[in-house]
Amino acid sequence: MKNKPIWILSLGHLITDINQGALPAILPFFIASYDLSYTAAAGIVFAANLASSIIQPVFGYAADRFSKPWLLSMGLILAGVGLGLTGFCRSYHLIMILAIISGIGIAAYHPEAARLVNFEAGDRKNTAMSIFGVGGTIGFAVGPFLITAPLLQWGLKGTVILVFPVTLMALFMATQFSRFKSIVRENNKQQNCRSNREEKEDWWAFSRLTVVIIGRSVIFYGLNTFIPIYWISHLHQSKMMGAFALTLFAGSGIAGNLIGGMLADRFGKKKVIITGFIGLALLLPIFILVNNVFIAFGLMIPIGLILYATYSPSIVMGQDYLPNRVGLSSGITLGVAISIGGAATPLIGRIADIYTVWYGIATIACLPLLVTAVAMSLPEKSKKAI
């Protein structure tokens, strides 16, 4: 796909999500400097994610009513400056407030950007959304590496490094506002040519799709959190090997995201989603039943590929179900549904604490069948008004 605005929005997604990836890497430095408990440190992440997930549909609703490309630059600035200033604070509550501001910035960027990607993509919406999603995935991966070296060199004040990439990207994004406005005008013109009536929205199908996305999010956050622990405690490997397993999982996910988008454009979103979860229903039980480290490493690749392949089709399908509220749909599917899935991770951790980490992963392995059953009930696309 050679569409420049989509790549620009994906790059902005990368820069925005660097801050989401960086926050967990900053926590050990907060703990060491301010003697925070693990609960207090985790509360910072929880507050930022909660603020982002709650307000994201609000920004999506606003984007649907009034196109505001400046939300992209504002979101970038708040995301980076909010987190970048936390290292200069000595008050836990002020750190929490700044983390929430960063979460609000992240929430401001996603719905408007996803809406513009949808409008600009034409008939290749899934491929375009997969490119947009890859930007965020890379941002998550880059965040810890970007922030750790400055923190080691300058202490907590090294968080200021996060201000620079968002500032540069926000200024560049501002030069694209006229282009983004023309994208919206062209989309509105095409919609008016097709029909003077609004397309029918399928909220019931969208609700079921949200359940599917929550299920996918539980699987993702569960694996992302417990793969290193599983390697260490169950497979009796080193911390380095656990980190390598997580790298394989995330790295294959980048390719899976792109492949899933292209397949969805060719064969349909529903087929890719159902095939993906059926694949997980087969591979995850095999993964927990093998004790051979090399086979377990090998399984990380198809598991990551398949799980990430369902990302863009599910986001685009949500936009199809709410064609008149693309921003709101993006806000819910990119924000609320994913955050609810992440909130289930402590429950998996509780199972692991009581029964060992194998049972925690086994719980995750049971979910794809349930998600598949819900996904099979989804219509391929929304029905239009007659």
Q: Can you put this structure into words, describing what you see?
A:
The protein is mainly α and 386 residues long. The protein folds into two domains: 4-194, MFS general substrate transporter like domains (Growth Hormone, Chain: A); 203-375, Growth Hormone, Chain: A (Up-down Bundle), CATH 1.20.1250. Helix content is 83%, strand content 0%. It contains 15 helices and no strands. The protein has helices spanning 4-34, 38-65, 70-84, 92-120, 125-154, 163-174, 177-194, 203-233, 239-267, 269-289, 293-309, 311-321, 326-343, 345-355, 357-375. Helix 2 (38-65) packs parallel to helix 4, helix 4 (92-120) crosses helix 13 and helix 8 (203-233) packs antiparallel against helix 9 (239-267). The radius of gyration is 21 Å and the shape is globular.
Question: Uncertain segments of ≥5 residues (pLDDT<50)?
Answer: 382-386
Name of the level-1 CATH class of the largest domain: Mainly Alpha
Counting structural domains, the number is 2
Shape from CA axes?
A: globular
How do the helices and strands follow one another from N- to C-terminus? HHHHHHHHHHHHHHH
How confident overall, as mean pLDDT? 86
The count of helical stretches stands at 15
- Report the major sheet: none
Question: What is the CATH topology classification name of the largest domain?
Answer: Growth Hormone, Chain: A
